[in-house]
Amino acid sequence: MTTPSAAASATLLGEFVRNHRERITPQSVGLPPGFRRRAKGLRREELAALCGISPTWLTWIEQGRALSLSAGTLAALAKSLSLNPAERAYLFDLAAVRDPASGDVTPGEAAAAALRASLAEAVARFRSPAYVLDAEWNAVAWNKPAAALFERWLGKQATERNLLNYMFLDPDARTFIADWPERARRLVAEFRADRRAGLQEKATRTQVATLRRASPDFDRFWSGQDVLAREGGERVFLHPVQGRVAFRQLTLQVANSPEHKVVLLT
């Protein structure tokens, strides 16, 4: 039985293929322009021949009736339509088929890796400490000033780069972060607000359960049910070498990946 989501994806895929077929000129694929050509771009028969499939099958694809496409057919469509890497990944994602050209990395994994690389490049340009948190508040990118400031959390010797784990499971945090009890309480309330739509996801439930068992303070704060928006303001740290240092914190949400947050300390 076809699910509504599969049918919707097939419709989107069909519209995508038809739109791109109409963009391709016959000359660009080595075909003569012909006379009295009424169709925009390639005819279905022409694209079907280029892909090695029947015109009927291509018609069903464009009508959203082809609910099971092979990787070979998708690859042929991508090549014949001159799709760029992002368009090819989109085509395979709509069909829920792994692109064999991506090796062992799925399009989603490749996109995530590219996003992390671009975020790392972005924060590296800041002169003051800057880091990026993912949905579970793992640090996925940071610059050298951040690593120097947060030696136990982001430095070379760090083995755990989850912000909540550092805050509640590393004794260093209690002496490093000024006014630790209040900052820790707020951090838990901010995490609850930030993950409000994903609190029932397995990764988050496991994370919260582990922290509640390991830290009585986290368990107490979590049981308090406080919910606070992640705000800026002054952040004070008692660094073992730099001494007392104060920053103004600003948190930015990544537009094309809202589960990621860029934290700037200026």
UniProtKB/TrEMBL annotation:
Gene3D superfamilies listed in its UniProt record: 3.30.450.180, lambda repressor-like DNA-binding domains
CDD domains assigned to the protein according to its UniProt record, in alphabetical order: HTH_XRE (cd00093)
InterPro entries for the chain: Cro/C1-type_HTH, Lambda_DNA-bd_dom_sf, MLTR_LBD
SUPFAM superfamilies named among the record's database cross-references: lambda repressor-like DNA-binding domains
Pfam families given in the database record: HTH_31, MLTR_LBD
GO MF, one example: DNA binding
UniProt protein name: Transcriptional regulator
